[in-house]
Amino acid sequence: MEHLDATLALLCAFAFLAGFVDSIVGGGGLIQLPAMLLLLKGVPVPTVLGTGKVSSVAGTAAALRRYAGQVPIRWQAVGAAAVAAGVFSFLGARVVSLLPSELLRPLVLGLLVVIAIYTFWRKDFGSIHAPRLPESREPYYGVLIGVLIGFYDGFFGPGTGSFLLFAFVGVFGYNFLSASASAKVVNVATNLTALAYFAYTGHILWQVALPMAACNMLGSSLGARTALKQGVGFVRVLFLVVVGGIILKLGADTFGLHF
Length: 259
Hints:
Helix content is 76%, strand content 0%. The chain has ten helices and no strands.
């Protein structure tokens, strides 16, 4: 019993940290999922993923609630992206069984390196909220982004939050805070799609998922509050740190390095 309590306490601590980071720039899965795979030995991988999705959905929703009303969210565009992403995330998950997702890893690695260099080089990137698209055209771009990133999220996954953040800043002209809030709307949609599938197939350990969800929500609320207080400069720096972490992880996987 003590061993189970200690394991759950560790999982909750990682869920809190994942929620904090994910609420600001995404990438919480890099913290939460490896911890779950390590600590829940013997549990089938689909069940680990399903259990983690409960935590992720709860945390993302909590972050979105904190952002809503505090930063501008263009709901027409972001809603269109969320619906498209939710549908195509499911399609991506179905296609992954037909094609080897490893084929994407070098391409994604290269794209993330470009994103990191561009964001670092452009010091003013994402510092000013100045939407550059006509409001009537934003939903169309939102659908396109939702289709591409939603499919990618279902098919492969790593870096989805970073790609969303970069898209809302680079394509729409949002600042990092508004882009982060907008990304949460899309994340909720894709996570709910995945959660529905895992719940339907019975791949959720609710006795683990619910405490983790509560801790993820606490971390997400604190993270969103910190981002709102510290501003776009803080979000930009953390974005670069998380993208760097994803690059290192994908690079190690691509070249077969183990640390």
